[in-house]
Amino acid sequence: MTDFINEPVCPKCGSPVESRRKGSTQGLFCTKCDWSVVTTYLSDFLQDTTSYEVRVTSGDFKNERHLKVVAQLADVNLITARKLLQEPNGFVIFTGPASEVIATRDTLKSAGLDFSVEPPFPW
Predict the structure, then answer these.
(1) 2-23, pLDDT tens digit by residue?
(2) Of 65, 66, 122, 74, residue with least CA distance to 98
(3) Rounded to an integer, what distance in angstroms lies between the CA atom of residue 73 and that of residue 6?
(4) 37 and 50, same domain (yes or no)
(5) Burial degree of 86 (CB within 10 A; 0-12, 13-18, 19+)
(6) Phi, psi of 57 (to 5 degrees)
(7) Pair 12, 54 in one domain
C-alpha cells in the first residue's frame, strides 16, 4: 500500500498553497485567492540562549585599525584600547548571545584581529 502525502490546499477555495519565509515571518499563502496563515519563525541561531565569550587573543597595539575596532567594540577610548591590546593573555571584548556574537566576530575578522569564542560557536 502506498502512502500519499497530500499537498496543502487552500481551505477557502481549494487551490494549492505555497510556503514563504521572509525574515522572522513564515506562512502558507493561497496561489489564487487572498487566504493565508502567518506565524513567527525564529531560526535556531536566534533561539540560542547560550552566553558566549569573545576574547581577542592577539592584535597590534600600533595598528590604527585594531585600535579603533577594539575601542568601538569595548566602548573605550584609544588609550584604553592600546592597553587592552598589550595584555599578554588577550582580553574579553564581549559576552552575550549568539545574535550579537555574529556582529562582533565579523568586525574582528574584518579588522584582522585574532580572537576565540567560548563555548565553541556553531554559527
Answers:
(1) 444 567 899 999 999 999 988 8
(2) 122
(3) 51
(4) no
(5) exposed
(6) -95, -25
(7) no
Q: Are residues 27 and 56 in the same domain?
A: no
Separation of CA 70 from chain center: 20
Query: Considering its fold, how many domains does the chain have in total?
Result: 2
Shared domain for 51 and 82, answered yes or no, is yes
Residue 20 lies in a domain: yes
Q: What is the DSSP letter of 66?
A: H
Residue 33 sits in the same domain as residue 69: no
- 57-68: per-residue pLDDT in tens? 999 999 999 999
Here the cell at position 49 is 540562549
What residues have CB less than 8 Å from 40, skipping those under 6 apart?
A: 24, 25, 26
Task: Using alpha carbons only, give the angle 55, 113, 93 rounded to the nearest 5 degrees.
Answer: 30
pTM flag (> 0.85): no
